[in-house]
Amino acid sequence: MHTIWKGSISFGLVNIPIKLHAATENKDVSLRQLHKECHTPIRYDKVCPHCEKSVENDDIVKGYEQAKDQFVIIENDELKEIQKVQADRAVEIIDFVELTEIDPIYFNRSYYLSPGEGGTKAYTLLRQALEDSGKIGVAKIMLRAKEHLAVLRVYKNTLLMETIHFPDEVRAADQVPGVPEESELTKKELSSAKMLIDNLTTAFDPDKYTDEYREELQKLIAAKREGNETVKVEQPELDTSNVTNLMDALQESIEKTKKKKKATGGRKKTASKKKNA
Asked: How much of the chain exceeds pLDDT 70, in percent?
């Protein structure tokens, strides 16, 4: 499993070297956008509309738009300074709480933690302490140039870190339009709804749920491949008719200037003879 980050967990006075691994993966079927006429893949270039030319990454800076077409320029060095990336890159556990106290709306992305060099015993200690206490750790971590709030818990004998949203990143539910306050329900309606819930209640088994859309799309792609319903895109050749070798261009320019100089010199000599006569 690929390591995407190396650092340590700061657990009181205990420092645990750890490695971070993505716990989930996106299995969406990727579809390219093609030109309907010739099936050539569409390219998206970074173009400056003012200069009317493509720009490279080195020519791009970051800016905060404070008003329409007004930006505050932020340099990369300034960003690095305020990112507060610590030298030891520690995941600092701030508090311990009950998992049930955190609503699922806060959860963002999951990462597996494995012990780094010399961290096996301390890793085991934290894992066992979390299991025995039934608590999870609330921590902060700098990841991909952004500070994240996260929780550490045990998942199938492995320490798992889940980044969670900060409170101000979760929108207020009372701002959702059209949500009714109260509605008059009959006892029969409510009883029927509860009975339906009871009938559909079961133990959670994640293996029973599949992405049916992705499976059908993969079947469609496989069928088209077997039926040879594919297209071969011919990459357009670059037009080099207007491209001239640099040395040839320089040599041609030199010859032209020589001819022009001779012609000008001849006219000057003729004019001088006439004047003397």
From this structure: 82
